[in-house]
Design goal:
The protein is α/β, with parallel strands linked by helices. The chain is built from six helices and nine strands, in the order βαβαβαβαβαβββαβ. It starts with a strand and ends in a 10-residue tail after the last strand.
């Protein structure tokens, strides 16, 4: 039987690239996001493998949507072998005193609450299915370790993802559920185009930052996803080699 994977935020960027790699490797893949057209366009990129792609829309910040999503997974496939908890947002540069409560809650609702809802329902399904077990990979960030200036909401939610990962990894031991985290720094994409033009640094300056090709992220992700459940990569950082992350800022 083909393994079943669910990728959130699969309509673009890292989520789409990793979902397509899973399709190419022979998985059945559920592409999840808010826009059906984007999900369908992503699946179409798989060409001959597109028949194993399935688009389901959901707003992950709403628990009711996530509950309905996993009800469909149970009904259609009966199990889930992999969740890539990838969906998230970042906000423009904002100092703590200027952060509006609505913006803070939006970041928390999507980056943290949405990640928890997906992890929670995936955990329950993996716990109850036969054979028991599965893998959950959370998309953290290098901001889960070191924040950027003006990014308090993003940094706080990504730090929280690390706690989510470690707690779920511990709780998953008894059920064969392996939980890990991939922390990514500066991938070339439309979302990171500003990195090459100049972004705020810890010393107050504005400088461009190097980016890496998304293929490096996909290769790292697929290494995690392909492991037997007896092994787990708890946390891995993949980043552009020259970006100003390691050292003093």
């Amino acid at each position: 039987m083909k393994k079943i994977a669910l990728v959130t935020g699969a309509g673009s960027g890292i989520g789409r690239a990793c979902a397509l790699a899973l399709l190419k490797a022979g998985w059945q893949v559920v592409f999840v996001g808010r826009r059906l057209e984007a999900l369908q366009a992503s699946i179409a990129l798989a060409g001959e493998h597109s028949g194993n792609g399935h688009a389901i829309t959901a707003d992950l910040s709403q628990e009711s949507d996530v509950k309905a999503l996993f009800a469909q997974i149970r009904e259609r496939f009966g199990r889930l072998d992999l969740l890539f908890n990838n969906a998230g947002i970042s906000l423009p540069f904002t100092l703590p005193g200027d952060m509006l409560g609505d913006d803070w809650r939006r970041a928390v609702d999507i980056n943290l609450n949405g990640a928890f809802y997906a992890l929670s329902y995936a955990f329950k399904l993996m716990q109850e299915q036969q054979p028991q077990g599965g893998r959950i990979i959370n998309n953290g960030s290098i901001s889960a370790h070191v924040p950027r200036p003006g990014s308090i909401a993003y940094a706080a939610t990504k730090h929280a993802i690390s706690g989510l990962t470690r707690a779920a990894a511990l709780d998953g031991r008894a059920f064969g559920i392996a939980v890990g985290q991939i922390d990514i720094g500066n991938v070339t994409s439309d979302m990171t185009a500003k990195m090459t033009q100049g972004v705020p640094q810890a010393d107050g300056s504005i400088k461009p930052e190097p980016c890496m090709d998304i293929a490096a992220v996909v290769e790292t992700f697929m290494t995690m996803a392909s492991l037997p459940l007896s092994a787990n990569i708890l946390s891995v950082t993949v980043m552009a080699s020259q970006m100003p992350y390691v050292g003093r800022g």
